[in-house]
Amino acid sequence: MRLKNIYQKKILILGYNMEDEFKLLFKTVSNRIKQDKSKSYTKKLIKEGPKKISQKLGEECTELIVDYLKGSKKRTVEEAVDVIYHLVVLLNSKKISINDIYKEIRKRKNV
Questions:
Q1: What is d(CA 101, CA 19) in angstroms, rounded to the nearest whole number?
Q2: In this structure, is residue 62 part of a structural domain?
Q3: Count of C-beta atoms within a 10 Å radius of residue 100
Q4: Domain total for the chain?
Q5: How many CB atoms lie within 10 A of CB 109?
Q6: Would you give the DSSP letter of residue 16?
Q7: What is the secondary structure of 49-109 as a DSSP string?
Q8: Using CA atoms, how far apart are residues 17 and 15, in angstroms rounded to an integer?
Q9: Does the residue 1 lie in any domain?
Q10: What CATH code is carried by the domain that includes residue 38?
């Protein structure tokens, strides 16, 4: 099995602990944002600014809802991943860390 990127390689090494995967996704997005010469999609979104990031997240949320209502589990999962990625980009663009998110989740654990 050939892995396409460092994210996939690290996940394979770490195993499938969801918390590790979210931390790694946050770190990968953060690193792409910091790389001045990065030609990544992530860097492109950041350069296009908050309106574009918000627009993309909104589009992905709409696609998720449509596929959910159609009843397609496979497409719902795929679109959910797109929503999560774009959400992480949005959070990173506001300097919100994974730890900020975890703190808020802990506050709401009884919800």
A1: 12
A2: yes
A3: 12
A4: 1
A5: 6
A6: S
A7: -HHHHHHHHHHHHHHHHHHHHHT-HHHHHHHHHHHHHHHHHHHHHTT--HHHHHHHHHHTT
A8: 6
A9: no
A10: 1.10.287.1080
Q: What's this model's pTM, rounded to 2 decimal places?
A: 0.79
Q: In sequence order, what are the residues at sequence separation of 6 or more whose Cβ sits closer than 8 angstroms to the Cβ of residue 52? A: 45
pLDDT tens-digit profile of 53-67?
Answer: 999 999 999 999 999
Compute how many other C-beta atoms are within 10 angstroms of the C-beta atom of residue 64. Answer: 20
Structural domain range at position 31: 6-107
Residue range 64-80: mean pLDDT, rounded: 94
93: tokens are 């663009």
Q: What is the DSSP string of 4-62?
A: -SHHHHHHHHH-S-HHHHHHHHHHHHHHHHH-TT---HHHHHHHH-HHHHHHHHHHHHH
Q: Which residue has the tokens 């992480």?
A: 88
